[in-house]
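Pipeline run #58 for the internal structure catalog. This entry was flagged by the ingest filter as a single-chain record with no existing model, so it goes straight to prediction. Upstream metadata was stripped on purpose; only the residue string is passed forward. Reviewer on rotation: M.T. Logging verbosity set to normal.
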Amino acid sequence: DPAENPPPHLDSIYFVNSGSEANDLAILMARLYTGNYDVIALRNCYHGMSLGTMGLTAHATWKYPVAQGFGIHHALNPDPYRGRFGNDGEAYAEDVKDMLETATSGRVAAFFAEPIQGVGGAVVLADGYLKRTYEHIRNHGGVCIADEVQAGFGRTGTHYWGFETHGVSPDIVTMAKGIGNGLPLAAVATTREIASTLQKRIHFNTYGGNPVSAAAGRAVLKIIDEEGMQENCRVIGDYLLGRFAGLQEKHDVIGHCRGKGLMLGMELVKDRGTKEPAGAETKKVFEDMKDMGVLIGKGGLHGNVFRIKPPMCWTMADAEFMCDAMDHALSRL
């Protein structure tokens, strides 16, 4: 059961149908529980496409020009590659502290973050950032929310949940995508105390936790454990990072490789010094790899990052084939 996998103190689960719904519900819970309204999120984040989560998201490419984001504040992104402070998590956390003291009333509802930014280009947050930021948020009355829609369920290899790689314990965890293996299933895990705030009114979700999706979710969790999917992510992910390092030495267009387990990113740039995004080159490699039989994701604000997030059951042969195809496509630039 999902309730057995988050930390023991998160003993209440609400089932919904998508990550956007889960994140909407998490914001509602945080605001009801704390009595505060403002929410801190990160630039370059993605949390969904409902009106509420579109405001939470910080990518112009995903935000329609409509009223959105009331009470949402976006802090500097703790991106070790492109961020203002490099891999100095403490410095980025100080930006959050300054925002709390200047852009809000001093009391907030929540801090919302992906442990590894997915749509934003598989960005692994700077070392020590989440731990210090969680402290600042809680000192200002807020709860901490981890969006595990993409990083959760063992994908990082070393840990079952992405937030565990940062050594933090969130108050609310949202999850979706992989939990249903293609079926509409998502959930919000939190404490009984926070969950009880929904009793103030009627809460209902027509298809949340429906028997078909729930059966699929239980089967997925069973397979992850019985077939060692988390360990497979670690082994294949380590191999891929090693191959990517070799490709980076060979191809100057590769500016940065990053990630954990089978949630990896490869960022292409025109110049390693200026880090100018190589969007056109990324698109060409993307299409060439497709013609060779490899479907690969891409993302990042400028569309210049390959998002390598394959099925957790990927084999070493699959990984080798993808790397060989990528090497060939890069050589044709």
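catalog note: The two ends are 48 Å apart (CA to CA).
catalog note: The chain has a mean pLDDT of 95.
status: ready for reviewer M.T.
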